[in-house]
Amino acid sequence: MAITVTAGANCTLEGVRASLLVAGLALALACAPGPSATAPWRAITCDSAVGSPANASDVPAFGTAGWKTDFARHCVPLSEITSGGPPRDGIPPLDRPTFDEAALADTWLEPQEPVIVVAEANEARAYPLQILIWHEIVNDTLAGRPVVVTFCPLCNTSLVYDRRVGGRELTFGTTGDLRYSDLVMWDRQTESWWQQATGEAIVGELTAMRLARVPSVVLSYEEFKRAHPHGAVLSRDGATAETRAKTGQGRRYGQNPYVGYDRADSPPIASFFGDRALDARLPPKARVGVATFATPPVAYRLDDLRSAAALNDRIAGRPTVLLYLRGVASPLDTAATALGGDIGQAVLYDPTVDGRTLTFDAGKDRTFTDRETQTAWSVSGVAIAGALAGRYLRPLDHEVTFWFIWSVFRPETEVRPIAR
After folding, report:
1. Which domain holds residue 125?
2. Using omega within 30 degrees of 0 as the cis cutoff, is the peptide bond preceding 296 cis?
3. Residues 303 and 234 reside in one and the same domain
């Protein structure tokens, strides 16, 4: 294979090595043997490859210079991974997060701003999206459990995973690359690459390994404090200090670099999403609440709700209730994350308490009431007044995200109309 270096190209030794690496990788992948000329990426099965065309190119569409990753081992077409612009960790993850008490967080965080809420044992933490929008990854330890808190702004996916896999504790960063607009993470221990939306390794030594989900919800800061009055909030000062130490620059927390991105009928950015067909059952960026525990999953279009609602249903043979409450600003709408349109907050619960299935209605004062005991409940699943005061509803496995990214990986999802 001939390598031609044109004027203006990187002619340093490092640049030539990088060119040879990319060219050699492309040749190796193109010529790799396989049964019946099967594409190399199909040799390892993984859920992240659902819907990838069988004849998809395996020629990398991204740079490999400087990586120790085993790019020959992968389970998705390398042509589907594309550069998002920033270099590796150009969007810097937070590795030493510090936290504020609510009294201090109140000085910079508005009640309607969205926060990722994670509760383990007797600890609860809120990770404001006004910070995550600039970092996308927080490596943390909560109640002794190593976790990675992730947010992909382009997909509106807020997911938390256990950082342990195969007996090894990992720490994560951002590759600077995307697949179907979704964040592709990397771990520092093996330099394997991970699909954020699935928690699955798609390239490298750990290909097809999966991170365990850690239960989390996105609530307004106001509702977080209501449910966890002694909870801690990811510190903006600590994030600033760590970011300056890594990059020499700060970040404009509270400002949205994706102004107007979340309009429901607007498609994902074509250069980041590729030529994959969109599932036309819903608008691309319709917000959906998905019962992920079910097979097939069941999705509700949350944009159809204009006021508080309790959706009592049965999914996969079990009773469920989705509680929806207004009062959360979209961080992907206006220039200021606190001033975005109201997108609401939704949590899916098991409505069974003490062996009795409760039926819920939206009540007054931002509460919900069960018909059986007339107990008042918050959207966070806490009984705040009445016969069951102090009890909790158990969240079921679910996710709130944009339709386009959910349907890429779970095209069999049932879209269920909302019956009020």
Report:
1. 99-247
2. yes
3. no
**54-89 as b/e, with b when 16 or more CB fall inside 10 Å?**
eebbbebebeeeebebebebbbbbbbbbbebeeeeb
Kindly state whether residues 208 and 312 are assigned to the same domain.
no
Give pLDDT tens digits for 275-332: 889 999 999 999 999 999 999 999 999 999 999 999 999 999 999 999 999 999 999 9
Give the count of domains, the chain.
3
pLDDT of res. 420: 54
Based on the fold, state whether residues 286 and 394 are members of the same structural domain. Answer: yes
- Strand extents, DSSP E, 143-216: 145-152, 157-162, 164-165, 168-169, 172-179, 182-187, 193-195, 200-203
DSSP-assigned letter for residue 375: -
Other beta carbons within 10 Å of 136 = 22
Give the model confidence (pLDDT) of 237-283 as tens digits: 999 999 999 999 999 999 999 999 999 999 999 999 988 899 999 99
- What 372-379 contacts at long range (C-beta under 8 Å, 24+ apart), as own/partner pairs, is 377/323, 378/223, 378/226, 378/227, 379/219, 379/223, 379/323, 379/324, 379/325, 379/345, 379/347
> 183 - beta bridge partners?
178
- Asked if pLDDT for residue 35 goes beyond 60, the answer is no
Question: Under a CB-based contact definition with an 8 Å cutoff, are residues 380 and 374 in contact?
Answer: no
Residues 285 and 264 sit within 8 Å (Cβ to Cβ): yes
Are 77 and 106 in the same domain? no
As separate numbers, helices (DSSP H) first and strands (DSSP E) second, the chain gives: 7, 29
The sign of the torsion formed by the CA atoms of 326, 331, 336, 338 equals positive
